[in-house]
Amino acid sequence: MVVARALAVLVVGLAGLAGLAGVARAHQSSVKYVDVTVHERSLDIAFTVAPGDVTAPLGLPADANPPVERAVASTAVPAYVARWLDVEGCARGPAAARADGTFLIVAWTAACGAPIERAALDFRRFFDVDRRHEAIVTAHAPGQRAEPVAVRAAQPILVVRAFDAPTPADLLADGARHALTRAEDLALVAALLLAVALARRRVRAAAVLLVLYIAGHAIGAAAIALPARLAGVMFALAVAYAAIDAAARPVARGRAALAGVLGLVHGAGMPAAGLADAAVASCGIACGAFAAAAVALPGLVLLIRRLGPDGARRRVLPIGAGVVAAVAVVQALRVAGAM
Predict the structure, then answer these.
(1) Is residue 92 within 8 Å of 82, Cβ to Cβ?
(2) Which residues make beta-bridge pairs with 36?
(3) How far is it, in rounded angstroms, from Cα 108 to Cα 105?
(4) What's the maximum distance between 2 C-alpha atoms anywhere in the chain?
(5) How far is 180 from 266, CA to CA, in rounded Å?
């Protein structure tokens, strides 16, 4: 019964989110991944898009879903995508497209006349196509990894600078920001709190799960490298599972291992330059996660005390799990390019 309620909330939540999204066109991906490699006097730019995003230069109806081979073969597609991004003070070079599974990558180089101290990436033309779109931009020095940044229509210009090695303070701040601003990270904290909602020592149990999650995150970031999209989808689906499991088995063993695995998967898709940097960045994520938990846990405890254990099992856990799972599944679909 509890699982049925949680799944019902999940289905209703997904339907509502789909409606709020205006029933986004399934042939297009709302999320575009942009990789920017910053050299001394140039930037190498690579846009990852779905074939359905480039129907205009192919002369097809907006709701068409062309094969990736046709999009790659078109000479009009690279120039069309390259126009989505302007770099202040830099000249756009010729663009080329190649297939990447069911997606295509359009890449070009922006040559700048002077050594780059800062560069403004202007996505206004990108959002002229569809203001609902979102660009996940990773700007980094050659051979390095970096924290992705989401660019949306409200703030379409992203400023990148010449890259030095990040300081520990930078890593801590980036980690905390990551934990407090990304939907999947907040959903993870909510899922872990639901898992300890009926525990005798909730604060201690929540702290243990968060510590194990952060430890797994540090190991994953330092020792494992997965494609960001794959790791993002795996992590979001694992969060959805953790939420439903918390409702189905309010008091169960094995949650510590699950928390560690969640951290491992999440860290594997995150940037790191060795164990030390991974540990510092994970400490920043820990600060953000503990802050979110500290805000949410007192309210959860008061609600459970008011409803009692039986009321929590019948209402709080299934409804909370359904909402968290809905957010996680939508995030997985967005990262995978299906929404």
Answers:
(1) yes
(2) 45, 139
(3) 10
(4) 68
(5) 15
Give all strands (DSSP E) within 65-223, no chain letters: 86-87, 90-92, 96-100, 103-112, 118-122, 134-140, 149-151, 157-161
The Cα–Cα gap between 85 and 109 comes to 12
The residues, any chain, with a CB within 8 Å of residue 210's CB and separated by 6 or more, are: 189, 192, 259, 286, 289, 290, 293
Task: Answer for the pair 261, 216: CB distance below 8 angstroms, yes or no.
Answer: yes
What's the one-letter identity of residue 261?
A: V
pLDDT for res 69? 93
Pairwise CA distance, residues 188 & 30, whole Å:
23
Do residues 118 and 159 lie in contact, with contact meaning Cβ atoms separated by under 8 Å? Answer: yes
Per-domain residue ranges of the chain? 31-161, 167-336
Check if the beta carbon of residue 319 is closer than 8 Å to that of residue 9.
Answer: yes
Q: Which two tokens stand for residue 22?
A: 């205006």
Q: How far apart are CA 78 and CA 108, in angstroms?
A: 9
What single-letter amino acid sits at 134?
E
Residue corresponding to tokens 């008061």: 302
Q: pTM of the full predicted structure?
A: 0.62
> Residue 14: its pLDDT value, please?
44
Q: Record the tokens describing residue 185, joined without a space.
A: 């990270």
Helix (H, G, I), strand (E, B) or coil at 8: helix
Q: 3-class SS at 139?
A: strand
What Rg do the C-alpha atoms of the chain give, in angstroms? 22
Residue 203 has a pLDDT of 81
Ranges of residues in the chain whose predicted pLDDT is under 50: 1-28, 338-339
Question: Is the separation of the CB atoms in 128 and 108 below 8 Å?
Answer: no
Contact criterion met (CB below 8 Å) for 151 and 158:
yes
For residue 270, give the nearest of 217, 196, 327 by alpha carbon: 217
pLDDT of residue 29: 55
Give the torsion through C-alpha atoms of 247, 251, 254, 259, to 10 deg. 60
Listed residue (55, 84, 30, 52) closest to 337, CA to CA = 30
- Dump pLDDT digits (tens) for 151-200: 988 899 998 876 655 677 877 887 788 788 888 888 888 888 888 777 77
Q: Is 168 in a helix, a strand, or coil?
A: helix
